[in-house]
Structure formats: structure tokens, C-alpha cells
Amino acid sequence: MGKGSAASAQVVPAADSPQSYRSSSPSKSTTTNRTKNSHVASVLHAIAKADEDNRHEIPFDDVPPELLCPDRLDLRVWSLLVSNKTCATIENYVTERESKFVEDAMAQLAEEQRQADLPRKKAKKASDDKRGVSASMAATTDARWLARQEAYALQRAKVEADARAGALERSHSEVGLKAVRMGGASKLGDIGLSRIAKCAPRLEVLDISGAIDIHDVGLREVALHCVHLRYLDLSGCSSLTGPGLAAIGERCNQLKHVSLRGCSRAVNGWALAALSKGSGEAIEYLDMSHCQLLSDHDLMTVGKDCTSLTYLDVSHCKQIGDQGVVEVSNHCSRLEVLKLARTEFPNKLTDVAILSIAEGCGKTLKELDLNGCELVTDVGVSWLAHQAGATLEKILLRNCDRITNAGCRALADHCHVLQKVDIRGARRCTDVGIRVLGAALGEQLQHLDIGQMHLLTDGVDRGFGFEGILALARDARALRVLRLDGCFQVSKRSLAALAKGLTTLQEIGLAGCPRLHAKEFGDLCKASKDSLEKISLACCGDCVSDDLVVNMARGAPRLKQLSLRDCERFGQRGCKALATNCLRLTRLDLTGCAGLTDEAVNEFSTVRWKPPGLRHLLLAHCRGVGDIGLAWLVEGSGSNDIVTLNLTKCSCTSAALKSSRDYFPHSEMKRDPGFFGFWPKPRWEHRLQIQAFGRDRRGIVKTQASYRGYCGRRYTKGLRAWKALEKATLVLQKRWRGSKGRARYRYFRAKFIRETHAATVIESGVRGSFARGKARRLRKVDQWRRACRAAILVQAAYRSLVARRYATLRLKEAQILREKRLGASIEIQRIYRGLRGRQRFRFFEAERQRKLMRRFRACQKIQMWRRCLLAKWRTDLLREHFERRQALERATAIHIQAKIRTFCTRRVYRIMRRKYDARMRIALFCQCACRLRKSQIVVYVAAAEGRHRKEVNAVCCIQRMYRCRAARDEYAKRKQAYMEYLAARLDATITIQAHSRTWAALVIFRQLKAEKDEYDARMAEVTRWASSTIQALYRGHCGRIRAVAVRDEKRARWKEMFDEDSRRPFFYNQITGEIRWRRPQDLLELMPRPLCGNCEYFEASLECSVCQEFFCAECHQTVHFGGKRAKHPFRALYDAFGKRVDYGDGDFDLGSMWPSEIIQDDIAGILLRIAPHRDPAEKIGLWERYDDDEYQKSYYYNPVSGEGTYDKPQAVREHEQLTALQRAQQQSQEHGLEYDDYYQGHARPMTGVSFAGLSPTRPTTGISWAPSSPNRPRTGLSQKSIESHHSNTTVLSRKEGVDYSPMNTPTASEYSRAGTPASPDLRGWTPPAAPRELEAEQGGL
């Protein structure tokens, strides 16, 4: 949320507020509360609007479709949203793209076939035309043509099927999915991975690192379908166990890049063996770092099979030792990068492994990481430098503390292409080693880490050249990264030399260097002004001040990361300089800067940082930074991009942190004991990129919409102009056509009239002649019609005569036909009856035959059943015999197989045993050679050390003799001077004693008078303190009364209201506008405290669930002492601080939340933590101490007053002070440091000791030691020894009759407390004497 939501942040509800404000807003209410409800509705509307703006931090539910179309998908930024649904969408896109490719290929094939068929069709048509046969007739009658067509159709179908299969295969390689990178997709499962594998058979790159939900099932699907894989990244897939990796090794034989970082369960022996056996010859990159179960045997398997390896990372694999590394180096001769860093078991890698690496892959090795290998010495480094010096570019030897100048010299002499050297923690290296490295590698050395080298200094001029950092600054001018952390001897001379020599530095580390100077460090920053991006000045102490930071900020304007941890002199001026000059800062560590205040932090709030802005600001342990500074920081323009804000042990409160939560949308608020502030959410960079994409997408859509609107408006405007022009053109054309038409009309009308008149005259003559000819024709037709009618009448008469004759003949023929039909019917009836009788006879005969057939079939079925039973019995006998025979054969085969397996196993074992013995002999020979070489080196080193030791012993002997002689001379001189001093002192003492007796009485009188005046002043001070205390108590009482009234008035601002939509009450604060469903704590405090339902006198403190009553503690113990009532659940009404506990609204059984037994104990007190349930660890007066072993705390309980606290009570502290004083007095008496009776034996007391009570402003019991004043006799009593305010204050009194002369000073045995003899044991001290008694004693003295 940006600044636009600051107004809404003030009305954000609590955690128990409604989830949906729209549904719960009180829109319906009574008329009397209409104004209040309208205000509440407006507040809830603002809350709902703010919640709607911040509902989704990521503006997408799934990956946008436009990112899923390419054939190489890179969704590492979007992997937060990748799920099985995303994989289904990818599958649909890939299938659609491949289908379109296949359809295009088939359409192209169809067009080619059509073009190829055209000549054949033309030849056929020409042949048919030549024979005179149509195409339809030839297609139905030519058998040969039909056969050829069928064969051609079958051939064409086969070609199309082959072409479709080939097109589908080509679609996989041309438009199919080839690369998928989804690192960090924690929502991806086996279903989604199987979809990807099935739709991408030509997949070459697969990155699913961090997919914790991927199991071996999904990986087997990948191995089954994606056999062309070349790149596989499974880093962090913790659910894999091995079978999936084995399937990958068996199927994917083209793998070149495999990353198994952190897959401890998957990297086991048999799975790794299957992977290396199947894909070992092709694998070039293998990362198995942080696999805790990887052993030497597994690494030996990888080394034997993966002979093409160029990159191998087995860092932080604690079980890897020399044996596995030796095997890898012997077989993998093309290794370029080898990482063996470790943090556990640093003694498992020694020089033996380094020697093997140098011999096996020294010709190709470019980078070697040996961080944390403590047993690596100069011998291994020298051998490595000799063998791999021509190619080695990076070597990391951090915390290898056995590396000395010899190792540095070997690297400098033989490794001429080194670009990065890390020897941090090599405490035996000195200026000589650094000088050699700088002189030999100055041209190409870019990264040098020499931190924690305590022997490194600025260097000196040896005549032949400089040493140390001066030599490095002169020679290594190409350095980009220089780390000198912990080199505490670096001073301004080194800084000046570095400023002159290094001008391309990008990073410099000077943490723990307390001798820096502002001017020289500023010059160093200015020298690399255009490239310096990272500086570390942590723990540099007082040398880092505002002046140094100002010079640094002016000299490094491109600075991105700065660490000023524990620099207490850094303050507001430095912050202002950083905010003014270093606008590219992304990380600023100010932890432990005690000089920072709210005003200093305000300097960062007004800065507009350059992209990407200030991301990480660490202000831990800055006590001066409080709520005001946090408010300025979050409200300023410079805090919009902060994702990490550490305010641990600052003065900021939780309320201020909660109110600032909305200003950090990409961070999570944490209030742990180890962190207090805002911590970035997981993968916040990807979240920012997704949000930026969403904003860009919305901007593009808006821009496109605006452009379309602009184009539409422009098109509409043009269309309107064209319409207007067209309309004007039409009007002009219409008028022009009208004028031309009217002229042509007049012309043609006149012409028509003339022609019509001439045609009328001609037609009248023609029609007359035509009419006369027609009349003649009509007369002839009429005559012909009359002749036709006469002929018709004659014909009708003749036809009637012929018809009468024909009818008579037909009547006779009908009579003869009837007679014939009668005779025929009689004959037919006779034949039918005979036929009917024969049919009935055949029916009865067939029925008899059917009965006979049924009987015959029944007999056949009975015989068949009998035969079946006999056959089954015989079959069972044969089956049993066959099974016995088969079992005998199986047992025989098993016995033979066991014999054969035993024989084969023994033979294989003998072969493997011989191989193992041969390998052991070779290994023993190598080990003997290495041990021999190592023993020779040890002998040489021991001889050299022996010679050096003898030389040192000789030098020490000479020096010792010289010092003894010088000491004897010095002793003689000092002894003579001391004797002279004693003589002078004795003379002075005699003179002083002679003068002191004369004024001793006057001194004692003045002392007593001063003590009396001091006592009067003390009494006046006590009187003033008492009056001030009474006034303070009265003001506190009045203030508490007023504070309670104000608090109750503030609590009363909570109002209970009713929501008509949800049908439940809610609570509204009229001051803050806060809304809650549950009753607030303020209203709970205003509720009247119930009385005990049993005694009806004391306030109730417990509530019983079954009895539904309130009880005080004693009544509850009495009522629920035994029986079933002892098992009744109960809860406390108030916590340990007397506040009402919120258990929710509603009925007791349904809406209440019962606390656990431990919480009830904490609320009701610690009654179960003290006696008689537990024995106290110690009794201190009235207080008892109980130790809590779980939390390492002590609890103090007073059984008399019933008080309990985790803080140490005042009486306990006083007792501890008294005990410490007694112990100190006893020790002082044992060592003779108190009073000494030696004054009677001509000596002076060593110290003057007195006991004095504490200040009256702290009414506590205590004892303090006060030295005697040097300007008065040592009486052993100070002026502050007479104090009395509290009854337990310790006061010393002087016994009467004591001679206070300087020659007879009283000893400690002559002093006592009032009425108590002096004793070294102080436990018997009594209260002080009253003032009157003290005055009497002083008057007597």
C-alpha cells in the first residue's frame, strides 16, 4: 500500500473484526440511531474500499496466457503462481499449436497431390473423349479404371497417414515445447509435471528446482516421455527418494547438465549408480552439494562412469573424504570446476586429495573451492600450483589456517592466470606472502580476500621494494574486490597507497579495522568514484565518525551497499551526507549505531532514491530511534521501496509498528525476541516483478484502449467528413443530372411527338388492309365449321346401330359363362375337402413322430450325462497326476537353479575379490608413497625447526644473562636509594609526631563539631525528604484518581450496536472508529465485578461450568473439595494483573473458550508452583525462591503477604548486598586490609574504613565502605557514618573513654554497634541509636 491508503490505515479493524464489511455494515436501523448508523456506514464503506484495494497483493491468480505460448518457457519469476492448472493450460496451447502445424502440413500435401493428379486426369479425359465415352459412363463401366482408382485411394490414404505421423513428429521438434524453467514452483505436483512430459516429447531443458511436491511418480513420467533431455535441475526437490532419478538415468541418455542440490533422499547409492551408468558418458555438469548422505563410495561410482565431467560440486557433503576425491580425479580428467567446500568434518580432506586432483585434472582445472578444509597445507597448494598453474583462474582457501607464505609464493610463481584468490583466515601469512601475490598477479588479479590475517600490516620499504598492503597497492592495479576485514593493523598509510594505486574497485571490506582516517579513506573512495558499489566498515569503533562518512559519501556516489555496524560515533550529519550523495543505496546496515536519533532517521525519509531504491535498512540496537522516527520514515518518500526494516532493541513500540504495517506491502511484521520489525516476504523480488508486469499490462491495455479510442474518434471524424463530402457530391450530381435530364427530356419529347404522328399515319393504312384480309379468312372458316357439324351427326347414327348389335352378342356370352362357373365351383369344393382330410392326417402323424423324438432325445441326454460324469472322473485323475509331476519338475528346477546360482555367485565373488585385492594393493602402494613423501617433508621440517629452536634458545640464553646482569645493577642502585629514603622518612616522622601532639585535641574538637553540624543537616534533609515524599504520594493519589476517571471515560466511548444483516451485536468506538464483533477489553473492565454466590461477601474470582455460579477462591475450594464437584471445569475471571479475561460472547457452554490448566495457573497466580507442591530452592528472610529450570528464571514468593514476582524483591537485594559486604570484610581481615594494631608497634593503618547507610531518598538497608579523609587523622570513622532514616540502617557508635590521640588510634576491636560488642560477624547488628542518645554521647565526648 502506498501513501494513498494512509487515511484508510487509521480505521483498519482489529483481528477479530468482520471479514466482509459490505455484508455486515449496519444499513438498517431505527430512526433514533439513524445519524450514528450513517456515520458507521460511511466508516465501513471506507474500510471496505481500502480492503478492496489491498485484497490481492499479486494481481494474478494464474500465469497470464500470453506468457505460456513460446516453445521455450521461462516461468522462474512466475513460479509463485505455477500449479497443475497452469500445466494443463500449457498442454492445451502446445496441443493446439501442434495440431495447427499438422493441419497446415496436410493441407499443403493435399494441394501437392491435387497438382500431381492434374496430368493424369487430363490424359484420362482425352482418352475418353477419343473413344466417345462420357466421364460418368467411363467411371461406372471401366473395370480397369475402377481398380486403379481403388489402388490409388489406398496408396493415397497410406501416404496421408505417414505424412500425418511425420508432420506430428516434425511439429514436436519445430513448434513443440523444448524448454521449461519453473524453478521455485512449490504448488507444482506430479499431475502437472506428467502433463508437461506428455505434451513435450522433444523437451530438452527442465528446471523444477524447489518443487517440494514433486515425487518419483512425476519424475518417472518425465523419463518415460522426454528422452531427449539435456538439462535437468532438481535442486531442493526434497520429496524425491531415488526411483525417479534411476528412471531418468535409464531413459535419458543425452543429459549434460544435472543439478541435485539438497536432494539428500534422492542421492543414494543405487539411484546414483543408475543415473551415472545410463547417462554418465554425456553428463558434463553435476551439482550434488548439500547432500548429507553422499558417501565416498557413491562419489567413486560417479567418477568411474561420468568421465566427461567438467563441473562437479560436492560442497558441504560431510561424508566425502580423500578416497572419493582421488577416484574422481583419476577418471575425470576434463574437470574445470571442482567445489569441495565444507563446514563439518574439516579433517576428512587432506593434501592427499589435493595431490590427486593436481595429477588427474591439473591440465584443465580452472576453479577449485577448498573453503573450510583445515588440513590443507602448503605442500598440497604447491603441488596444485605446479600441475594446474597454467589453467587455474580461481582458488578459494578460506579458513585453511595452515597456509603460510610458502603457499602464497607457490601460487604466485606458477599460477599466472589467477583472477580470484580467497585466503581469508590464513593467520600464518604475513606481508611477504601478500607482496609476492601482488607482484606476480598484479595484471590479472581482480578478487582478493585476505581478511582475518592478523600479521598483515601496512608494510615497509625494504630497499628492493615495498611489502604488505603498500606492495599490493603498487602492483595489483586491476583489483575490483578487496577485503581486509579483521586486519586491525591497517592504517592511513595503507589507505593512501590504495587510493593512489587502485582506481577500479567495486567492493572494499574494512570491517574490524580501528585505525582508519577520514581524509585518506575519502581519497580512496574518490579514486574509485565511478565503480565503487559496496563498502563494509562494521565494528571499526570510534574511527568511523561523521567526518569519515561525509568524505566517503562525497567520494562514492554510486554506492549500493554500506555496513556501519557498531559505529557509535555515526550520527545525523553522516545520515544527511548519505541521503544527499549516495542515492543508489539498496542496503544500509546501521545496527548498534548508538548516536542515531529520530532526527537522523528523518534524513532518509525525504530522499528520492534512484531505482531500485533503498530495500534494506537495519537499525537494531539504536536506542535513540523511536516511534517518531518510524513515523517520519514511513511517511516520507524515501521509504516506499523498503522491504527489510530491523528495529530490534530500539525504542519503537508494537502499536507504532502495527500502524506502519500498511506501508510495507512486501514485508511481514515480526515481533520475535530475535527480530522486531518488517521482514521481506518469500521471493519478494519476484512479487515485485509480477506486480510491475501487472501494472505494465494494465497500462498497455489502457494505452491500447486510449489509442483505439483516438483511432475511432479520428475514423469517425473522417467518416463524417467523407459522408458530408459524399452528400454534397450527390447533391451536385443530382442537380447536374436534373438539368441535363430536363434538356434531354425536352429534346426527346419533341422527337417522340414527330415520330409518333408519322407512325400513326402509317399504321392506320396498314391496319385497314390487315382488317380486310382477316374478314375474308373468317368467312371461309365459318363455312368449314358448318360442314364438320353435318358429318358428325351422320357418324353418330351409324355408331348407335353398331352398338345395339354388340350388346345382344355379349348377353349370350355371359349366360354361358355363369353355367361354367357353377360346375367349376362344385368341382373345387370336392377337391378342397379331400385336401383338408389329407392335411389332418399328416398333422396327427407328425404329432406321433414328435412324441417319439422327445423320448429318443431324453434317452440321449441321460446317456450324455453318464458319459460326462465318467469323463470328469478320468479328467480329475489325469489333472492330479499332472500336478504331481509338475510339482516334482518345479522342485527339481529350483534345486538346479540354486546350485547354479551358488556356483555363479562363488565365481563372481572370487573375481570381485581378486579385483578388490588388486585395488587394495594399488591403494596401499599409493598411500605408502604419499606417507613416505609426507614423512620426508615432516623430517625436513622437523630438522629445520630443530635448528631454528637451537638458534632461538641460544639467543634467549644470551638475552637472559644480559637481563640478569642489568637487573642486579638496577637492584643495587634502588636498594641504596631506598635506604636513603627510609632515613629521610624516619626523620620526617619524628618531626611530624612532635608537632601533631600539640594540635590533636583541636582537630578532634573540630571534627566532632563538624559531625554535629552534619547530623543537623542530615536531619533537615530527612525532614524535607519526608515532606516531599508525602506530597508526592498525595499527588500520585490524586493523579491516579483522575487517570481512572479519564480511563473510564475513554472506555465508555465503546458503544454496543446491532447489525440487522448478520443478526448479531457489534461494538463501535466513537473516538477511533474501530469496529469489533467481540466485546472489547475496555467494556469488560467497566462491567461490575460479581460477588461470590456462596458467601455473598467477597468478590468472585472463579466461575464453574457445571454449577453456573461465581465463587471466590476459598468458597470454590470448600464447595468443590471432593466428590463429582472436584471434577467440575472452572475458569478464572481475572488475570494476574486484575484485568477481566475475555472468553467471548454467547452462552457459557457454547461461546466460552476454556483456557488450559497452565494458563489458568498463570491467571489465578502461581499457587501450584510453590510450597507445599514444591520445595523452595532458598529461603531469604520472609521470601522463598523457586527455580524454573525450563525458562532459566527464579520466582520469589512471600507466604506472609502472599506476594509473588519474577523480579528480585528489595529485601532480597539488600540481603545479597549484606552478604557480599560480610564476605568482603572477612577477606579484608584475612589479608590485613581493615584496621591494624601495628600502630602500637610503630606503623600506620593502611586504610580508613567506615560503614555508612544509604541515602535517605532510598529507604533501604545497605552497607558501604568509605575511605578516610587524607587531611585528618585516621580515626576510622567518616562524616557520613551517622545516618538514620530506616529502622534497618547501620550506624557505628564510639565507645566512651577512648583516647583519640594520634599515637593511640583505636582499632576495629574498640568499635561496636550500639550496645553490641565488635565482631567480624555482621549478622548480629542492631538498629541504630536514637538521636538523643547520640547527642548525649557527643556531649560526653
TrEMBL record:
Domain of life: Eukaryota
Keyword Zinc-finger: yes
A single GO cellular-component term on record: SCF ubiquitin ligase complex
UniProt biased composition (Low complexity): 17-35
Chain positions covered by the region annotation Disordered: 1-39, 112-134, 1249-1341
SUPFAM superfamilies, alphabetized: RNI-like
One GO process term, biological-process aspect: SCF-dependent proteasomal ubiquitin-dependent protein catabolic process
InterPro entries: FBXL15_LRR, IQ_motif_EF-hand-BS, Leu-rich_rpt, Leu-rich_rpt_Cys-con_subtyp, LRR_dom_sf, WW_dom, Znf_B-box
Polar residues bias: start-end ranges: 1257-1292
Domain spans labelled B box-type: 1087-1133
Entry keyword Transmembrane helix: no
Positions with biased composition (Basic and acidic residues): 112-132
PROSITE patterns: IQ, WW_DOMAIN_1, WW_DOMAIN_2, ZF_BBOX
Keyword annotations of the record: Metal-binding, Zinc, Zinc-finger
Gene3D superfamilies assigned: 1.20.5.190, 2.20.70.10, Ribonuclease Inhibitor
Pfam families: DUF7885, LRR_6
SMART domains named in the record: IQ, LRR_CC, WW
Record-annotated WW domain positions: 1054-1082, 1183-1211
Gene Ontology molecular functions: zinc ion binding
Designated name of the protein: WW domain-containing protein
